């Protein structure tokens, strides 16, 4: 393959080739059809082409927003990355992701996340592993049952209830870090029918306080599984009610499968000590624009301080340089400063700290933070205050 790789947004003429590339990479059903339009709400499709004009790589920038301590941060979440087998190991993926990052930066994105099939190529481009989306199996009969609360109403949801479900999701997730807001063109364009096979609602005085969306699956034997796509609540009573409803499936679905959200109202009701891991999806994080990433998010009100550091980002040169992080009163700012700094941070180290996935001393031990003289790496723990990030959506 020629050494030159040209990266640009895909056009309608490229869609069949992009579909075939993805089909071979991910083993998709050949009977499915390629998109008919190159433009789609909330996403930008990129392609890498060789000197002969042949498509040799593709990737999609998903225009998400993520919650970070109460504020929505614009994200360029990456999906559908595929490289032709004859072009792998020749710099196509790096060129493709460099182009995607530049385009995302130009449209105002601040951060990025992705689910890798293999981590090494993304690490080479500045993403770092920051968490795991876990899917676990629980014995349905082991779910705690209790006497239904008289002040709560449990009923089946309808499409008319979806705005209330969206609002409750936001109540649960907006104070966390990393969770998708589920706002914007990408979600506005989605089918708004009931998700899965059913939605169970829990209400208190007409107000939604908990919900579960689920898929019944097939059969009623020992291998039958009730898949719970999501179960969230804003009170302990509503969480107990939801778990009790899920437990009522024990006679026909011996296994409940779900993705627990760490420390939320529903998870603390589950017998997670007996959970069996069904699937784990590693996710990786990266800044697109470090100044935006710091300025756009919320910060704990108690956090206060300042630290200078030098950042190196080979793919996004607008991030490289010496910066001063200043945090106070629930907000933060990253500004450029002259001169050198005793703390020298790799972009992957920035990703770990920002996502709350590691302390600065661990980042230094991993070789992603170098300290000159008596510089204390712990000073950069300021970048990670606010708790670890978590994702609940797979993309």
UniProtKB/TrEMBL annotation:
One Pfam family here: Acetyltransf_9
Top-rank taxon, per record: Bacteria
Domain N-acetyltransferase: 5-150
Record-given protein name: Acetyltransferase
Organism (species): Micromonospora vinacea
